[in-house]
Design brief:
Elements lengths: L1 E7 L6 E7 L5 H19 L5 H9 L4 E4 L2 E6 L5 E5 L2 E5 L4 E5 L2 E2 L6 E4 L6 E2 L6 E2 L2 E7 L1
Antiparallel strand pairs: 1-2, 1-12, 3-6, 4-5, 4-9, 6-7, 8-9, 10-11
Length: 141
């Protein structure tokens, strides 16, 4: 199951639809996300994200959930949208809840990207004006 987002700029009329998720949709998608999850876990174990994350993944391996589904991101510099594989780790314990989202790089300008959600602050990638017209169109299989 995936989600469809539609962006429409009230200023310049730019319009685009983006499809994210879909883990159960195809075997290929499921395989890609599982490979990305294992790659993220391995990178963390080898210290790519620092010693604290390495120790946490090493000592709490069975309690950490990794999400590598596709998500919609927007670059904070050039404002381009991009569907990318999320890189997140979650762990729930009685004493605390941990959530870590690793940085995404814009494929156009290599700046930082932020994940977009319905209702989040959104800028038009064409005219660069602020607008809040990112809406969830629906679920798809």
């Amino acid at each position: 199951m995936g989600t469809s987002y539609k962006y429409k700029c009230d200023e310049c009329g730019f319009e685009e639809e983006y499809f994210v998720g879909g883990r159960l949709m195809t075997k290929d998608y499921k395989k890609r996300t599982e490979e990305a999850e294992e790659e993220l876990r391995s990178a963390a174990l080898y210290g790519k994200y620092g010693e604290s994350i390495r120790q946490l993944v090493k000592n709490e391996r069975d309690k950490i959930y990794i999400n590598c589904d596709t998500e919609l991101y927007q670059c904070m510099d050039c404002r381009q949208f991009s569907v990318q594989i999320a890189k997140e780790m979650f762990m729930n314990r009685k004493e605390f809840t941990m959530s870590v989202e690793f940085r995404h790089e814009c494929p156009s300008c290599h700046s930082s990207m932020l994940r977009k959600t319905r209702g989040s602050i959104t800028f038009c990638p064409k005219c660069k004006m602020f607008t809040a017209r990112l809406v969830t169109m629906g679920k798809f299989e």
